[in-house]
Amino acid sequence: MALLAHVLQLVGWWIAPLIIFLLRRESKFVSFHALQALLLQICHVIVAFGAMLVWILIIFGGIAMGGIGNRGQAPPPIFILAFPLLWLIFMGFWVLVLVIAIVYGIKAGRGEWAEYPVLGQIARRILKLDVQAAAIGPASA
């Protein structure tokens, strides 16, 4: 189930880790991995909404400056620079989520208590897991 929590986030976004987290609360190992995947998906949603907000602000800023909607005028250079940059940031974060899901899914399948770089510590604090107890060895659940 821990492996599924990581891998299913690629197609089920935040819903799949949330369902696994809620169904397998009795297993500390599964809930730890599912919560990490859920936190990663929350970060992904925040980045996506942030990129959309920046893009909307750029569009309305261009309208306010009079650069959009006037016939015969080229769009402001900020559009030519901002759209590819925002797209690269969004796609780069998506590739990062893809790699993290696969790598940590493999580790969870092996029974390792592998932590995401920052989100793993947050998940431990939320679940109140002991660091030494989890680092002893493979999971028994």
Structural topology:
Layout: H1 2-7, H2 9-12, H3 15-23, H4 28-65, H5 77-109, H6 119-127, H7 131-135
Helix pairs in contact: 3-4, 4-5, 4-6
Q: Short description, anyone?
A:
This protein has 141 residues and is mainly alpha-helical. It has helices at residues 2-7, 9-12, 15-23, 28-65, 77-109, 119-127, 131-135.
Quick tags:
141 residues, 7 helices, mainly alpha
Care to describe what's here?
The structure is a single chain. This protein is an all-alpha fold and 141 residues long. The protein has one domain (2-135). Helix content is 74%, strand content 0%. It contains seven helices and no strands. The protein has helices at residues 2-7, 9-12, 15-23, 28-65, 77-109, 119-127, 131-135. It is elongated. The mean pLDDT is 80.
Output the number of helix runs: 7
What number of domains?
1
Q: How does the overall form come out from the CA principal axes?
A: elongated
Beta-strand share of residues = under 5%
Secondary structure class reads: mainly alpha
